[in-house]
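Notes from hallway chat w/ T.B., transcribed later so I don't forget. T.B. wanted the structure written out for a chain they're using in a teaching module, and asked if we could keep both sequence and structure tokens in one place. Agreed to drop them here.
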Amino acid sequence: MASVKQMNYLGISAFCESLAMMINAGIKVNEAVYLLESKNETGGQLAEAIQSMGKALDEGSALAPAMKQTGLFPEYAVRMIEAGEKTGKLEEVLFSLSAYYRDQHSIKEKLRTVIVYPAVMLVMIIIVLIVMLRMVLPSFRDVYNAVTGNLSASSYRYIGLAFGVCRVALVITILLVVAGVVLYVMWSGQNRKKVVKLLSMNGTCRGILEALSMYRFTSAFEVFLSSGEMQDEALLESIPMAEYEPTEAKLKACAKRMEEGIGFAQAANDLNLYEPIYGRMLIPGERSGHMENALKRLSQLLAEDCGNRIDRLTAFLEPLLSGVLMITIGVALLSVMLPLIGIMNSIG
């Protein structure tokens, strides 16, 4: 099972929620796992993994080691469930993990849209430009030659402009596609940090990266606290989940403030970890002893903010790429139509 591909975010969310609901209904963990197995009678990796978990639980294993040996679940989920079992808060942790991975799935799909849509548009632009250069523009040139015998100097300049505009646009578009492929390969390999640094040079991308990192941290922090961890320990455990160096630096500074006896809510506000409208939610939550609830609500708001930022980027890219395509084709067609206008005037 060690080589099994990990379950996707939505699958992990559904698994955790189903298991949590059964435990909430008073069903023992091993029985709940067998009930989940009966719902996956079609076979496949998930059914095999659940069956393997059931056997391990029957042999006296805890849930976390049973999940880990399947290779189907992320290390983070396994660690959270292990902490929940130790503190007797397994049900709360499972519900929190379900919400966390459901939000992660939603954000991942939005990010995929941001990547896929421009890629499709760029490919379409390349195809249109190739058609213009190989078929449309040569046809106009041949027609003009057939009508007039040869192209005048001014007409030749117009036709040359049309070919030039399309060639330049084609080269730029191909370079953009190549750059996108290189970045994707780097992201999928061992150079993800380099890609993040490159993206951080753009203000819009930097804002999205910061929002995503704070969302991931806050969600992880809430789950750690729900599992029974102390605040300072939970903070240190959650920092790597941010996966963004500037945010991690701020969080480490926050951890130092907490070592001086300051609570997380006050330290976060002092260091402006969150926007003021979000940061103010933490202080009353901490003072009333409901920090987990405040963090859970804050995670939801941050997830919505990430989604809105990604939607705005998509809404910006869509008309931009469409406009580039329309302007390029418009300039090219106008250039080849001008000689026709001259011919018509001379005939008239």
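Follow-up for T.B.: Residues 104 and 231 are 23 Å apart (CA to CA). Might be a good example for the class.
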